């Protein structure tokens, strides 16, 4: 694809593709891009719909807020049209509830695929599920007005949309516990200082900064980026010696590919 091509547009999610860069946009600014099960299914479908030549995926939200988190309608007795309410789900068996939450998590897992690099462009509120969606991406570029918060505990819940692992990896256990347990806001300066944000820019420069980063990522050879991402993702599960071995194996593959020599 050489021009902007709309691949999906449903339930508050739009996927467009231009060359090697795809953009997933949350499209309900009137509700501050609040999330619902239908939106999560659309996000999962967006991941499955990516063309094979896409190398970078940008995630953004229309309007003043990236995402204010879960739509509180989920906690009403009526829930969403055509959906069981969360109160109804709570009456199911452990196995049924586990399966439903696992399905919801699918919207948050594909962003760390080894064959793509994902960038969250975050402005305004990124609360609860919105915070976890930003954490699902490899990189985060944020506007100066960003406000991250993990508010699940204030609702008597826990963060369950895959955000706990990357949060601890980025800021450490003690700070992650404090952020989650208190539900306080994390602003741009702290986000950059603690590694939650790769870059902080004025709000009117967010799109251009993300575009520059995406272009830089696409400029590097694809296979080298894929191998490097896989190496870095595996660090936490390897010893220093095991990581050295993994580096040697990855470099051998790259050298053989560059020389045109098969395995």
Q: How are strands sequenced across the largest beta sheet?
A: 1-2-3-4-5-7-10
**Structure summary, number of beta strands:** 10
Mean pLDDT: 94
Number of helices: 10
Please tell me what the overall shape is.
Answer: globular
C-alpha end-to-end distance: 31 Å
State the major sheet.
7 strands, mixed
Strand content: 15-25%
Taken in chain order, the helices and strands follow as: EEEHEHHEEHEEHHEHEHHH
Uncertain runs are none
Could you explain the architecture of this structure?
The protein is of the alpha/beta class and 263 residues long. The chain is built from ten helices and ten strands. The strands form two sheets. A seven-stranded mixed sheet has the order 1-2-3-4-5-7-10, with helices on both faces.
Task: Reconstruct the topology from this structure.
Layout: E1 5-10, E2 13-18, E3 21-26, H1 37-48, E4 56-61, H2 86-90, H3 94-109, E5 117-122, E6 125-127, H4 129-136, E7 139-143, E8 147-149, H5 164-171, H6 173-182, E9 186-187, H7 188-194, E10 199-201, H8 206-219, H9 222-233, H10 240-259
Parallel strand pairs: 3-4, 4-5, 5-7, 6-8, 7-10
Antiparallel strand pairs: 1-2, 2-3, 8-9
Helix pairs in contact: 1-3, 5-6, 9-10
